TrEMBL record:
<dbReference type="Pfam" id="PF00005">
    <property type="entry name" value="ABC_tran"/>
</dbReference>
<dbReference type="InterPro" id="IPR050153">
    <property type="entry name" value="Metal_Ion_Import_ABC"/>
</dbReference>
<keyword id="KW-0067">ATP-binding</keyword>
<dbReference type="InterPro" id="IPR017871">
    <property type="entry name" value="ABC_transporter-like_CS"/>
</dbReference>
<dbReference type="InterPro" id="IPR027417">
    <property type="entry name" value="P-loop_NTPase"/>
</dbReference>
<dbReference type="GO" id="GO:0005524">
    <property type="term" value="F:ATP binding"/>
</dbReference>
<feature type="domain" description="ABC transporter">
    <location>
        <begin position="23"/>
        <end position="261"/>
    </location>
</feature>
<protein>
    <submittedName>
        <fullName>ATP-binding cassette domain-containing protein</fullName>
    </submittedName>
</protein>
<dbReference type="InterPro" id="IPR003593">
    <property type="entry name" value="AAA+_ATPase"/>
</dbReference>
<dbReference type="InterPro" id="IPR003439">
    <property type="entry name" value="ABC_transporter-like_ATP-bd"/>
</dbReference>
<keyword id="KW-0547">Nucleotide-binding</keyword>
<keyword id="KW-0813">Transport</keyword>
<feature type="region of interest" description="Disordered">
    <location>
        <begin position="1"/>
        <end position="20"/>
    </location>
</feature>
């Protein structure tokens, strides 16, 4: 299941251009605050694949995302994104950081927030463009707003949009430059259940229909379970990689945590982890 063995050793093969994997980690390790957060991580993500990064608070999930953007060092092993080292292909990556929301008094329109993703400077004032480029930019913004189903509220001040609507607009912003990889850090956090389901389905659709590779940090796997191809579970400094059916099992999580953990399936199909040595208040009712 851990793919290190299947892929044979820590060295990465030579880049294969656009047809190669979008993301590859081989024997990768992360350090922060003077300690190793995780090590020996192997992961391959290809175009159109949806990967969830799960694990308890403090396991180093956000640090992984920062590492992929070149904002946190690779402590050991190899990491390659779109054939380059982390940080060198960021213009081809759409990124949605953790816990971003807008104050109710924020007057800027949703559509302008989306447009900022196109201009590169997400929080600056868009530069005036010559006519044809301006029209192309406007068409792309409209296209992506429609893709995320935000057309009816995109012209409202973003501060007046609901959390789920804001999240859709931010996903549109991350998508507007046609990224090949979408990095999402807990995009379902703080959304109610119905919005979680809607945004999860949207991300699944973007991934599988538009062939965008998605790597998403999640606390609860349940809203995305049916859209996922791969799970990377980080805990206790180690990792497990594979399909959700391979990773989210009593056997795998017991091995990873080094303590008895039971995975139960509720009658509605939701997975419940019991006995996980949880480090914070996430509870035992979710997997992640
Ligand atoms: N720059 C830093 N300096 C010192 N410690 C750091 C730094 N960045 C992260 N850490 C620590 O590394 C650990 C992992 O942090 P990270 O944010 O990656 O965890 P996480 O799995 O995303 O957690 P959560 O689920 O709570 O968001 C935490 O203990 C955090 O305090």
């Amino acid at each position: 299941m851990d793919r290190a063995t299947a892929l044979g050793g820590p060295r990465l093969p030579a880049p294969k251009g656009e047809r190669g994997p979008v993301l590859e980690l081989r024997g990768a390790a992360a350090r922060a605050g003077g300690r190793t957060l995780w090590s020996g991580v192997d992961l391959t993500v290809r175009a159109g694949e949806f990967t969830a990064v799960l694990g308890p608070n403090g396991a180093g999930k956000s640090t992984l995302v920062k590492m992929l953007l070149g904002a946190a060092p690779v402590a050991a092993g190899e990491v390659r994104i779109l054939g380059s080292r982390p940080g060198q292909a960021n213009h081809r990556i759409g990124y949605l950081p953790q816990r971003r929301s807008f104050d109710a008094s924020m007057r800027i329109r949703g559509i302008d927030v989306v447009r900022m993703g196109l201009d590169g400077d997400r929080w600056g004032v868009p530069l005036p463009l010559p006519g044809p480029r301006r029209r192309a930019a406007r068409a792309r913004v409209d296209e992506v707003v429609e893709l995320v189903g935000a057309s009816t509220y995109a012209h409202r001040p973003i501060g007046q949009c609901s959390g789920g609507e804001q999240q859709r607009l931010l996903i549109a912003q991350a998508l507007v430059r046609r990224p090949q990889l979408l990095l999402l850090d807990e995009p379902l956090d703080s959304l109610d259940l119905s919005h979680q389901g809607g945004v999860a389905a949207l991300i699944g659709r973007i991934c599988h229909r538009e062939s965008v590779a998605v790597v998403m940090v999640a606390h609860d796997v349940n809203p995305i379970l049916h859209h996922l191809d791969t799970v990377l579970y980080l805990a206790e400094g180690g990792s497990a990689t594979g399909t959700p059916e391979e990773v989210i099992t009593s056997t795998t999580l017991t091995r990873l945590y080094g303590a008895r953990v039971e995975v139960l399936r509720a009658s509605d199909g939701r997975l419940v982890v019991v006995g996980r040595p949880e480090t914070t208040g996430g509870g035992h009712a979710a997997v992640g």
